[in-house]
């Protein structure tokens, strides 16, 4: 099997699993309990919190563990909407956000808030001028994802935060895809709140964190006990937090070499596909993109058929976000960058890892050429297109 769907999830690395294992079977106590047995576990949770905080240039008390990226996104938007309701009722986000943001924004609209959804250009980048023009006196939050989960485009985060702060507005970024794959310093970039998820960087599923800059008042999303300094109730998921900390340390140690390696593979993949498969489009910015992301549209075919045939060839890819894999609608991201439905339906996202080899990439491109050719040979749309091309000559 060639696994090229690392944006959907990654495998837990052996070192991460080994770090977690004792906290299931031996050090199984509740970190919130008062006795020494649990106190040692709480110390390891704190060590993971510090490792994560150091990685993003934050204070450990600004890191709040959650169940993952979706919870973190929900908390950021709903929590601020509640705590800042006397200041304003307007939020700005984009049309290409993950559905954890878009559906939360829709929920808030039903509660009486106004939401502006910014357009993006053909590469998936927002227009900073449009952002500034969208700001109102009652704008309380700007939320723009760090890097898009489908097309990989990285947004101008520092410039966005500067605009937000110039107008006295908080800035949140969904960094689920970017965290651990690109360098993020929350102070240097001016990020006020940031959502992440562990399973995108070889930690287990079901763990993430929300960074909340010191001094920001936000209402809890989950009420109950006093865990996470009274901000997020629920028994501390010690094993997963410790695994998350181990994964972050590995990501930090390998960031530079991993990025260089993945960019080399990614660019080889892109260059071969565009050169060898006609009527193909690369989606997302050519250079300002995640190091492991390549997203294409192949005209005259359906992405679903492409995925099935790739799977038969032992290759795992996706047509977009794994969170919408059951939908027959084309990607909202591809529509937002201006692609018509018929082209957006033929999309393929391939996301690499440091375990991917050049042989994997070449095998995948060779199979892609065969599969795209086969599917096009059965397409009446392609047949008509070729006929018109010949007549034009």
Gist of the model:
This protein has helices at residues 14-20, 22-25, 36-56, 69-83, 99-110, 128-134, 157-166, 186-189, 227-230, 238-276, 303-312, 332-336, 341-344, 358-377, 380-392, and strands at 2-3, 63-66, 90-94, 114-118, 139-143, 170-174, 193-197, 208-212, 280-282, 293-298, 315-316, 347-351. The chain has 393 residues and is of the alpha/beta class. α5 (99-110) links the parallel β3 (90-94) and β4 (114-118).
Question: What can you see in these coordinates?
Answer:
This protein is an alpha/beta fold and 393 residues long. The protein has 15 helices and twelve strands.
What's the helix and strand layout?
Layout: E1 2-3, H1 14-20, H2 22-25, H3 36-56, E2 63-66, H4 69-83, E3 90-94, H5 99-110, E4 114-118, H6 128-134, E5 139-143, H7 157-166, E6 170-174, H8 186-189, E7 193-197, E8 208-212, H9 227-230, H10 238-276, E9 280-282, E10 293-298, H11 303-312, E11 315-316, H12 332-336, H13 341-344, E12 347-351, H14 358-377, H15 380-392
Parallel strand pairs: 1-11, 3-4, 3-5, 5-6, 6-7
Antiparallel strand pairs: 2-8, 7-8, 9-10, 10-12
Helix pairs in contact: 1-10, 3-10, 4-5, 10-14, 11-14
């Amino acid at each position: 099997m060639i696994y090229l769907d690392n944006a959907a999830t990654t495998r837990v690395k052996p070192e991460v699993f080994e770090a977690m294992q004792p906290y299931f079977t031996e050090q199984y106590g509740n970190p919130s309990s008062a006795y020494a047995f649990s106190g040692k576990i709480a110390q390891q949770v704190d060590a993971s919190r510090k490792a994560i905080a150091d990685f993003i240039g934050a204070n450990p008390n600004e890191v709040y563990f959650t169940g993952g990226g979706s919870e973190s996104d929900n908390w950021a938007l709903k929590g601020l909407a509640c705590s800042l309701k006397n200041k304003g009722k307007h939020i700005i986000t984009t049309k290409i956000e993950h559905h954890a943001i878009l559906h939360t924004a829709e929920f808030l609209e039903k509660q009486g808030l106004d939401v502006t959804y910014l357009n993006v250009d053909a590469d998936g980048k927002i227009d900073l001028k449009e952002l500034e023009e969208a700001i109102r006196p009652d704008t309380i939050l700007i939320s723009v994802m760090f890097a898009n989960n489908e097309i990989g485009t990285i947004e101008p985060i520092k410039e966005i935060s500067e605009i937000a702060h110039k107008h006295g507005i908080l800035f949140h970024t969904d960094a689920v895809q970017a965290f651990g794959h690109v360098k993020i310093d929350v102070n240097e970039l001016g990020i006020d709140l940031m959502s992440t998820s562990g399973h995108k960087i070889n930690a287990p599923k079901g763990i993430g964190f929300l960074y909340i800059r010191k001094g920001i008042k936000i209402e809890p999303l989950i009420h109950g006990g006093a865990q996470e300094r009274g901000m997020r109730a629920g028994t501390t998921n010690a094993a997963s937090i410790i695994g998350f900390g181990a994964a972050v340390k590995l990501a930090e140690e390998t960031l530079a070499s991993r990025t260089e390696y993945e960019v080399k593979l990614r660019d080889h993949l892109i260059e071969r596909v565009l050169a060898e498969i006609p009527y193909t489009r690369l989606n997302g910015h050519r250079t300002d993109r995640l190091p492991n992301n390549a997203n294409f549209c192949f005209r005259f075919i359906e992405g679903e058929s492409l995925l099935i045939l790739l799977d038969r060839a032992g290759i795992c890819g996706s047509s977009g976000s794994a969170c919408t894999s059951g939908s027959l609608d084309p990607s909202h991201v591809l529509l937002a960058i201006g692609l018509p439905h018929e082209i957006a339906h033929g999309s393929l996202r391939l996301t690499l890892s440091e375990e991917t080899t050049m042989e994997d990439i070449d095998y995948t491109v060779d199979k892609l050429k065969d599969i795209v050719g086969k599917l096009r040979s059965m397409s009446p749309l392609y047949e008509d297109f070729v006929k018109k091309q010949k007549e034009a000559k």
